[in-house]
Amino acid sequence: MRIIKATDAIEVTHPVFMIFGQPGIGKSSLGYSAKDPLTLDFDRGAHRAANRRDTLQIETWGDVTELTDRPAVLEPYSTIVVDTVGRCLDLMVTDIIASNPKLGRDGNLSLQGYGVLKSRFRLWIAALRTLGKDVVLLAHDKEEGDADNKSVRPDITGGSYAEVMKISDCVGYAYMAGKNRVLDFNPTDRWIGKNPANWAPFVIPPIPKAKTFLAERIDEARAALGKLSEDSSKATEVVEQWRHAIDALTTTEEVNKAIEEAKALPPVLAPQVKRLLMDRAKLLQFRWDPKQKGFVDAGQLADQAAGSAA
Questions:
Q1: Cβ 174 vs Cβ 204: under 8 Å
Q2: Residues 59-70: pLDDT tens digits?
Q3: Element (H or E) spanning 118, and its range?
Q4: CB proximity list for 3: less than 8 A, separation 6 or greater
Q5: Is-above-0.70 flag for pTM?
C-alpha cells in the first residue's frame, strides 16, 4: 500500500473518455480512431462504422468476464471502446438480477441492486486500466426538459449515470453544426462536459482523415491531466509552506504583514492562505479593526473604546 501525499503528483496514465451524441453521427467510427482499439460491440452496430478495427460482439455479460479473465487476449490492444455504455450497463443489470433475483424486480434493480451495479462497473473499468488500457465510453444522447429549456445528456440507465460521470476524465458531446461534425468537451447550458485540456470545440475531420483523431486527443488528455496533478501538488506544497510560517506568527504586526504578502498570491492559492491567517488570528484572540484595516489584540481595542468614552 502506497499513500500518495498531497504534495505528490498523481500520474494519469490511462484516462477514461466519454463521448455521447446523436445517432448516426459517427461515434463508433470515432472509437476506432483510438490507438490499437478493441471495440466491445454491445449495441451490435459495428458493421455500420467506417475504418472498422478489431471488434468483439457481446451477447452476454459472460463474454465480458471471459475477456477480462484472459489478459493475454487483450495484450495487443491499447484502448478498450465500450459501444455503447448504456447497453453495457443494461446487460450488467440483467446479469446482476439473474445472479441474485432479490436485487431486482420486473427487470429493474432495487436500490441495493443499483449499489451493486455501480460497484461492479467501477471495478470493471479499474481492472481495464490496471491492465494498461485507455478506455472510451460511447453513448447515445438523451433530451431532457421542455422545448424552451431543452438539454442533452448521455443516455445511461438510472443511478449509474453519476458513477459513469465520476469515472470519466473527459466528456465530450458530438453534434452537427451545419455540415460539420463537432466534438465539444466544454460544458454548456445545453450539455455536460469535462475539458481538462481546455480544448476549443473540434471540427471532426472527414472519416478517411480521422483515423488517429481520438488517439491524439487521448495523448493530449494524458499530458493535461498529468500537468493538472503536478500543478495541484505544487500548489499544495506552497500552502503547506505558508501553514508552517503562519503557525509561527505571534503578534498582530506579523499577521497583518502576512495578510499583505498573501495578496500577491495567485487566485487559486490566496483564499486558502487567507483562511489560514484568519484561523490563526482567531486562535490568538486578535480582533479586526475596520479603522486600521488590520488585526489588533483585544486589549488594544478595549483601550481604544475606553478612550472614546472619556
A1: yes
A2: 999 899 888 888
A3: helix 111-130
A4: none
A5: yes
Residues in the chain: 310
What's the grid cell of residue 37? Answer: 482499439
Helix or strand or coil: residue 138?
A: strand
Through-space distance between the first and last CA atoms of the chain, rounded to whole angstroms = 67
Query: Under a CB-based contact definition with an 8 Å cutoff, are residues 160 and 119 in contact?
Result: no
DSSP 194: B
Q: Which domains does the chain have, with CATH numbers?
A: 16-226 (3.40.50), 249-309 (no CATH)
Helix (H, G, I), strand (E, B) or coil at 20: strand
Using only the alpha carbons of the chain, give its radius of gyration.
Answer: 27
CA 294 to chain centre: 41
- H/E element holding 259? helix 252-262
- Distance separating alpha carbons of residues 101 and 81, to the nearest angstrom: 30
Question: 284, 247 in Cβ contact below 8 A?
Answer: no
